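hey
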């Protein structure tokens, strides 16, 4: 039996003998050096390490604590919204503190709706965030600086999560 694969440069189908698996050879068409994969029969499944529940629980606690601290810091910001002054951000008017919404929760709702392909819910969250554009942009910028998604959004791969954040910034 032979190994079939495509050249990484020219894309042509190459057939090589089983004995050449795991070695390098030259593409007969473009002469590019190519890696010849191992035959499927010889591939071994590598077992995964068991999940350490204690590490998982500790990571969840740390993410939750970071989220609580961030929320507390956001609520303790100087009263820039108490003044009633208009900030020049596309005509948005800052709200008094008692009328503010939970922007982080709205952003999380947008992100989880995007992950679930629920465009209606994502659009609703984005429209609500546009009413608080300054706070929303600040929060999204802070999230983009983090390397990993918050624990409640941990099921979203990091590159997809960053893409959702960029999309939200464009919408704002």
């Amino acid at each position: 039996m032979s190994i079939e694969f495509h050249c990484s440069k020219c894309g042509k189908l190459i057939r090589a003998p089983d004995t050449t698996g795991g070695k390098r050879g030259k593409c007969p068409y473009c002469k590019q050096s190519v890696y010849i994969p191992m035959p499927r029969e010889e591939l071994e499944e590598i077992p995964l390490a068991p999940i350490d529940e204690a590490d998982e629980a500790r990571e969840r606690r740390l993410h939750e604590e970071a989220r609580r601290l961030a929320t507390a810091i956001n609520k303790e910001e100087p009263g820039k919204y108490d003044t009633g002054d208009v900030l020049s951000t596309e005509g948005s008017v800052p709200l008094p503190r008692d009328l503010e919404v939970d922007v982080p929760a709205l952003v999380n709702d947008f992100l989880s709706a995007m992950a679930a392909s629920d465009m209606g819910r994502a659009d609703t969250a984005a429209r609500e965030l546009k009413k608080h554009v300054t706070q929303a942009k600040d929060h999204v910028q802070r999230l983009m600086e983090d390397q990993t998604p918050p624990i409640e959004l941990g099921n979203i791969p990091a590159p997809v999560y960053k893409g959702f954040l960029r999309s939200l910034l464009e919408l704002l």
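The radius of gyration is 25 Å. The chain is about 45% helix and 10% strand.
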